[in-house]
Automatic annotation (TrEMBL):
Statement: the UniProt record of this protein carries the keyword RNA-binding: no
Database matches in InterPro entries: Bact_response_regulator (IPR050595), CheY-like_superfamily (IPR011006), GAF-like_dom_sf (IPR029016), GGDEF_dom (IPR000160), Nucleotide_cyclase (IPR029787), Rev_trsase/Diguanyl_cyclase (IPR043128), Sig_transdc_resp-reg_receiver (IPR001789)
Keywords (A to Z) from UniProt: Phosphoprotein
Chain positions with 4-aspartylphosphate modification: D53
Domain Response regulatory stretches: 4-118
Location of the GGDEF domain: 317-451
Lineage: Bacteria, Pseudomonadati, Myxococcota, Myxococcia, Myxococcales
NCBIfam families according to UniProt: GGDEF
Pfam families listed in its UniProt record: GGDEF (PF00990), Response_reg (PF00072)
SMART domains: GGDEF, REC
Protein name: Response regulator
Length: 616
């Protein structure tokens, strides 16, 4: 059926005549008596043709035509008038009307003019439809190309960046973020772009709970925050959740139906691409492992590290690199044989594999040296991992079997991006420097590893007649002898200031003495500390008047004479390591203090074991 026609004339007879005549030809006709009503009708519906009188009360036909052309420059208009000077007039030509008819109008003339105008309108409709189809085809073709590219590039890092870029493009979104399922089944933030603030993006989300139903439906859903509409797009492949994308800040001000439709199509292909990328990564890892130890080879590790450096720079993240060396492996090979040397190496890798996360990577750098990469791990976390790693190695049966005949000289070092360097070589260099420091440490030179806490304290304190402590230019300084009576209190004041100055720094602090009092300098100094201190702080001793403290955890040790005779401060953090142990006597105070990280870490570990304190 032909499109609707609007007849505008203040003459009732002409309106009825035109309506009857055009209706018989199959046209739908709406007739009104003035321009005001005509504009109201045009606002509600679209008309292929407007047939209007020129001379009408109020707004005349010329003004109405001008208003109609403002709304639609291609609107078909036929002017009707009793004045024969309207035909070919300058105003009519300027307005670009389809035709001008003079009353009284012959039926044949009216129908001919209407047929011509409606034919032009139909041609424009057809052209617009073809243009829309071409645009839709181009849009679909573009979407198809994007989908095929997601399937043709199995590199997971490339995919994660490309998915949010493509989703943002097809949905006209200025901001996008992507969470991809990790090896533990959580959705981990992998990439983001645009106007988003990272601090408001959760690093991890559980796919269970309230989010589970939405994800299982595998259909995009729309939400709104205070700033912008947000479109969430799940990535689901064969019922398996692979990720979740968040799109916001649409250029059009809101997300349209076609945005949701295209996002769904792209997300389905992206989910398959991510799934394939994860499978390929698993196969690469299997094919790039050392045959004897199952650790990755160095070429794969350096490639993996370079990608981690890129991500850390791109998203402001941190990661840590660890190196471990069996310094006396050649001696083990000579004395015990090659099989026992291999057994020791396999045991170490087996022990490390038990305590690492799925995202951590172990590589074999040489026969006696290994690298570990720990994503999203700061320097303090790396130090704690070194401690756990050494303990895990000592507990491994294969290693214990070898060490019964010849102890292994295992040493580890850690470095963190970007604190210790911004490329792989710098990080490795820093690790080896810290390994050298541990080799030269008093911990190794005095063979303190096997001593219980208080036995080590007695050895380190010694007596005035004890020999001097061994020194090494590579090691941090350690001293014992007479110390000032006020040193213990002054150090607490300085440490409290440092903790308040940098509350986000992670660390462990143990302060022990005969009594736990509310007037201890550390307790007083931390009264105004923020409640979210990242360091864990413990006071050990006999309870006096300190019941609770926002920043401190008291550990009451009643009747322990060894604590009653000593005072100590053990502090290990991302930026500092220090130990002070002192024994007050009738004369001067006798003490030991050091900034040797290995000694401080060893003392803390043994103190935790002595009093069953929870490790960090």
């Amino acid at each position: 059926m032909a499109g609707p026609i609007l007849v505008v004339d203040d003459d009732l007879f002409f309106r009825q005549l035109a309506t009857d005549l055009l209706s018989r030809r199959g046209h739908r006709v709406v007739a009104v008596e003035n321009a005001t009503l005509a504009l109201e009708e045009v606002a509600r519906a679209t008309f292929d043709l407007v047939l209007t009188d020129v001379v009408m009360p109020g707004v005349d036909g010329f003004a109405l035509t001008a208003r109609l052309r403002e709304r639609d420059p291609e609107q078909e208009v036929i002017l009707v008038s009793t004045r024969d000077d309207v035909q070919g007039s300058e105003v009519a030509l300027r307005l670009g009307v389809a035709d001008c008819l003079v009353k009284p109008i012959e039926e044949a003339d009216l129908l001919l003019a209407v047929d011509r105008a409606m034919e032009r309108a139909q041609l424009r409709h057809e052209r617009a439809r073809l243009q829309d189809e071409n645009l839709e085809f181009a849009r679909f073709h573009n979407l198809q190309q994007r989908c095929l590219e997601l399937l043709s590039h199995p590199d997971l890092e490339w995919l994660q960046e490309r998915v949010i870029a493509d989703l943002g493009a097809v949905c006209d979104a200025q901001s996008a973020a992507l969470w991809v399922v990790d090896d533990r089944g959580d959705l981990a933030l992998r990439s983001y772009r645009g106007l988003l603030d990272k601090q408001f993006l959760p690093e991890k989300m559980s796919p269970e709970g309230p989010l589970s139903l939405r994800l299982r439906e595998a259909a995009p859903w729309l939400a709104r925050d205070e700033r912008s509409p947000v479109l969430y797009v799940p990535l689901v492949a064969a019922g398996e959740v692979m990720g979740l994308a968040q799109l916001s800040d649409p250029l059009t001000g809101d997300f349209r139906t076609e945005h949701t439709r295209d996002a769904k199509v792209l997300a389905d292909f992206a989910a398959v691409g991510v799934k394939n990328g994860r499978k390929l990564m698993a196969l690469q890892r299997l094919g790039l492992r050392d045959r004897d130890t199952a650790a990755y080879n160095l070429s794969y590790f350096t490639d993996y590290a370079s990608k981690e450096i890129y991500k850390a720079r791109r998203y402001g993240r941190t990661f840590s690199l660890l190196t471990f060396s069996i310094d006396n492996l050649p001696l083990v090979r000579v004395r015990l044989g090659a099989q026992d040397a291999k057994k020791a190496v396999r045991g170490i890798i087996k022990a490390l594999s038990k305590i690492i996360r799925d995202s951590d990577v172990i590589a074999k750098a040489s026969d006696q040296e290994f690298y570990l990469l720990l994503p999203e791990t700061d320097f303090f976390g790396a130090m704690m991992f070194v401690r756990r790693a050494v303990a895990a190695v000592r507990d491994e049966p294969d290693v214990q079997d070898v060490e019964q005949r010849l102890p292994l000289a295992l040493v580890g070092g850690a470095s963190t991006f970007p604190k210790d360097g911004e490329d792989f070589d710098e990080l490795v260099h820093r690790c080896r420097r810290r390994m050298d420091e541990r080799r030269a440490s008093l911990q190794r030179r005095l063979m303190l590893d096997g001593l219980p806490f208080w036995d080590e304290v007695d050895l380190l304190l010694g007596t005035p007649n004890s020999p001097r402590l061994p020194t090494d230019d590579r090691a941090e300084p350690s001293r014992r002898g007479k110390v000032a009576d006020v040193l213990f209190d002054e150090l607490q004041v300085e440490i409290a200031r440092e903790l308040v100055r940098d509350p986000g720094s992670r660390g462990l602090l143990y302060v022990g003495g005969p009594e736990i009092r509310a007037d201890l300098p550390l307790a007083v100094g931390l009264e105004q500390a923020p409640p979210d201190l990242s360091s864990r702080i413990y006071l050990l001793g006999r309870r006096v008047d300190l019941e609770s403290h926002a920043a401190l955890t008291p550990v009451f040790l009643e009747g322990d004479e060894r604590v009653a005779r000593h005072e100590f401060i053990l502090w290990l953090s991302e930026s500092a390591s220090y130990a002070l142990i002192q024994r007050r006597g009738r004369g001067a105070t006798w003490g030991f203090h050091t900034s040797d990280t290995a000694v401080v870490d060893g003392l803390i570990s043994k103190l935790q074991a002595e009093y069953d304190l929870q490790p960090y």
